[in-house]
Amino acid sequence: xxxxxxxxxxxxxxxxxxxxxxxxxxxxxxxxxxxxxxxxxxxxxxxxxxxxxxxxxxxxxxxxxxxxxxxxxxxxxxxxxxxxxxxxxxxxxxxxxxxxxxxxxxxxxxxxxxxxxxxxxxxxxxxxxxxxxxxxxxxxxxxxxxxxxxxxxxxxxxxxxxxxxxxxxxxxxxxxxxxxxxxxxxxxxxxxxxxxxxxxxxxxxxxxxxxxxxxxxxxxxxxxxxxxxxxxxxxxxxxxxxxxxxxxxxxxxxxxxxxxxxxxxxxxxxxxxxxxxxxxxxxxxxxxxxxx
Length: 292
Description:
By secondary structure, the chain is mainly beta. The protein has three helices and 14 strands. It is globular and about 65 Å long.
């Protein structure tokens, strides 16, 4: 009888320890704060002409059509720029949730470009606090003009231009997002500065449930190029509809890829060198999306 009572007491004691341990674990788990990541800092992988920190999720394909006309101040003979057009067609694919690859072709310089974008940091709060999102973007463009349209002493390397960017963005709230983009353009063309440094400053303001305004400004930091060309300034109005983002914009840049418009903008806003353009972005889910 005494042995039975002793065994019961030991069992109850062990059971109590188990419940105490389980309760402590449940309490500890309940104290863990869930990490919340910032989403939709911008509407698309491009803000206007320049890149944003956004990229397609794994298995998503993005079709991007960029189109703008000539300068409005060219007058009625050129139908205020509508007789001219610069177009780029591009595709971007999410290999993983943090790696994107892209390819495109622009009528400006008949440029074919290939790119990739890597997410380094994601803005978050809660369990993990990170004040900004950071991505790295790299793009290589090849000028495919016929040899007769190039300087007589040109070699193949003169056709190449590279763009490297660190994209740093913060979504302050549902209405306001800002981004900085330290940029480096390398090109080996005669009579031009081979290495051009610039700083991109961009912002987005939501003005409605499915509408927003984008502002994008690239300041050239390299003195020689800054003395010969203008800083790129673009303003866009976005409309979201399902998997589409339609953007109407005005800009002083004829080039569409970063290698062209960052160091090569000639239009001057103060002289009326403004063009009208639009971007269409369409997202396709080729693989069922998986969220973080």
